[in-house]
Design brief:
alpha/beta; seven-stranded mixed beta sheet; four-stranded mixed beta sheet; 13 helices; 17 strands
Length: about 400
């Protein structure tokens, strides 16, 4: 007999009964400092009072009506995001993969509406991650994601990050867009240099291509800006958001400039659950908190303090770690030993992190983190490293 639950995950043998701020309380009776935040999702921590209030208030009114009818929360939140970003229109869905699917369809529909349906290919980057649907695993192009799922969805080409000449060489008459994460999270917290993003923007402008940014993980304050593209001074044509947008409630969004958004006419795309009243109430509360004066400044300050502490850990434990990567509170420690060993040892010592590619341990604390919790984490990390060094 196989388990009733599909065995596509290998979770740690740990579950939680409640959370409060940056802490989770396990069914083993222990308190854990959460530096994973549900993989950069619980950006406002656990049981944030404004999110709880928004959800419970809406839950007592209406949960779901479908997009056959107007949903005022969608209109309000879309306007908030338009006012705060480059975008002219927003589409709401349930996840990051769905947001990326929408973005990919937007690229193709834009050129089709222009009378250039032969332009459909998207250039992506090696070691990227865009979701688990057939199209988004093809967009990432990683063999470990594609293996076993039959013919790869057509329309994606891949080059290494950082070499603009290789990107230029990959462009053909069928190329429609370039898709990139400003920080490659699953790929090991690899920050894409702002100069490279600016070069991509110029290349798209020069060649008549669209630039699509996957900010599923980097967006909503994680890097110290509302969205990471702001660090480079460019604007994309399409941007996808999810994870922290709902603070733990499933919601995604695809943002686009007017010329692209206009191509998505009635019936061209849709979702039964996307943008339902519950999701809009919670995501609206998340945006309210993140747009408060000083919130993003706090992320930058805490990020700097955490980086300083982590650099000290690297100096004290050079046999465990070799490099610190990241920006804001989107950080990663590249390990010299297997990252799973570090991940498990930190759980033993009461701290939760996330593993990433390139043998990295990702540190993704809630954006509400304070100095006291940063000091607590550094102490836990030091103790875990010392125990690993002593065998």
């Amino acid at each position: 007999m196989i388990p009733a639950l599909l065995s596509n995950y290998a979770p740690a043998d740990l579950s939680f009964e409640k959370g409060e701020g940056p802490y989770l309380y396990g069914n083993d009776g222990r308190r854990y400092l959460d530096f994973a935040a549900g993989i950069a999702v619980s950006a406002l921590g656990h049981a944030h009072p404004q999110l709880v209030a928004a959800l419970t208030e809406q839950a007592s009114k209406v949960w779901h009506v479908s997009n056959l009818f107007r949903i005022p929360g969608q209109e309000k939140l879309a306007q908030r995001l338009v006012d705060a970003t480059f975008a002219d229109a927003v589409y709401f869905c349930n996840s990051g993969a769905e947001a990326n699917e929408c973005g990919i369809k937007m690229v193709r529909k834009y050129f089709s509406e222009k009378g250039e349906p032969e332009k459909y290919r998207i250039i992506g980057f090696e070691d990227s991650f865009h979701g688990r649907t057939l199209a988004t695993i093809a967009a990432a192009g990683q063999s470990k994601l594609l293996a076993g799922f039959g013919p790869v969805v057509e329309g994606f080409d891949h080059v290494p990050v950082g070499d603009i000449e290789l990107v230029k060489a990959a462009i053909t008459e069928a190329t429609a867009a370039i898709l990139i994460e400003p920080v490659m999270g699953e790929g090991g917290i690899r920050v894409v240099e702002p100069e490279f993003l600016r070069a991509l923007r110029k290349l798209c402008d020069d060649r008549g291509l669209l630039l699509m940014l996957d900010e599923i993980q980097t967006g909503m304050g994680r890097t110290g800006k509302l969205f990471a593209y702001e660090h480079s001074g460019i604007v994309p044509d399409i941007l996808t958001s999810a994870k922290a947008l709902g603070g733990g409630f499933p919601v995604g969004a695809c943002l686009a400039v007017e010329k692209v958004a206009k191509a998505m006419t009635v019936g061209s795309h849709g979702s039964t659950y996307g943008g339902n009243p519950l999701a809009m109430a919670v995501a609206g509360a998340v945006v309210d908190v993140m747009m408060e004066e000083g919130f993003l400044d706090h992320v930058v300050e805490m990020g700097n303090h955490l980086k300083q502490g982590l650099m000290g850990v690297i100096d004290r434990h050079p046999d465990i770690f070799e490099e610190l990567r990241g920006i804001g509170l989107h950080l990663g420690l590249k390990c010299k030993i297997e990252n799973t060993i570090v991940f498990n040892k930190l759980i033993e010592h009461g701290a939760l992190t996330a593993k990433g590619g390139d043998n990295v341990v990702r540190l993704l604390p809630p954006l509400i983190i304070e100095d006291a919790q940063i000091s607590e984490f550094i102490s836990i990390l030091d103790a875990a490293c010392t125990e690993l060094e002593n065998g």
